[in-house]
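pinging the channel bc i need a second pair of eyes. not urgent but kinda urgent?? the chain im working w is below, pasted from the shared doc
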Amino acid sequence: MAATLYTLGYQQRNIDDFIDLLLHEGIDVLVDVRETAWSHKPGFSKTAFMQALAAVGIDYVHAKFAGNPKSLRNKAPSHAVCLEWYAELLDRDISIVDSFDALVGRLLRTGQRVCITCFERHAEDCHRSILAERWSRRGGRRIKHLAIDGCKRIIPS
């Protein structure tokens, strides 16, 4: 069976909706691929995020090395260009994907379901989709972007 990596952005979601989506998919580990695990949104900064996830049995890992570097974000004339530059960075510096592959591979080998997260709600607007795509190119790997329709509260309260 092919390995599957899930992705989910937290834009326009509150922490309860976000966690509901993870629980619905049976996610065991959330890998945060933001360079800096900080947010204006309540519940999505590193410590609060880790605590909220731990309360429902989901592990949290911060993969700072996989984040879209601030230097690229600050210099890019547009969001689209920033994503292009991130893709080029991954192609130039394969150690980023190698490290990501090692991290995700270790988690998947223990039978855990892994989801990566960043801010943008839609995967195509986020560097996480580029990272996941580079990971999937290594063969026998699938990506599933969660809540692509923007649904909220899919688990009845």
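so The chain has one domain: 3-145. and The CA atoms of residues 21 and 154 lie 7 Å apart. — does that match what u expected or am i reading it wrong
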